[in-house]
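Class prep. Sample record?

___
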Amino acid sequence: MPATELLLSPATLPDDAIEVARIADAWGVKGWFKVVALSPDPQALLKSKIWFIQPPEKGGRHFQGVAQLEMRQSRFHGDGIVGWAQGVDDRDQAEKLRGARVFISRADFPKTEDGEYYWVDLLGLAVVNREGVALGTVHDLMASGPQTVLVLSYEEDGKTQERLIPFVDAFVDEVSLPNKRITVDWQPDY
């Protein structure tokens, strides 16, 4: 029996699109697929009804450009996530999505409470201490048990260095997204 053709709706990636997951593999026989979220708390992914996908960077490609998936359902299953989209009705079609990069519109992210931030919003922010000394730019974050740690990059003697600062109230005085800046109680020699 020949494999079922994958028919996807061509789309344009929204200006505020953020990569949030990858499609890992088919799950079951009715078109469901396993999803690997890039965030430890994938609420935005689960909330969004429209996913934008791009082919994997490496490996087999069964589609080109950007396509839109209208999600019938996405949910936690065990320790992972599974999804099911319109037009993906059997295992063969779901397998053709393997490796696809999943993006959603930033507008689909749930609103944050005061003092809460999405990691993606912190990336690229300049970090300065109370005295105005530049400590670096946030280039990554990492979960470290009960707290998140800012991973900063900065130049010293012509070499790129890293600095780690716990993202906790004891050290973070202010996060200003409009000014693209984080002010901390931290010294360059810590």
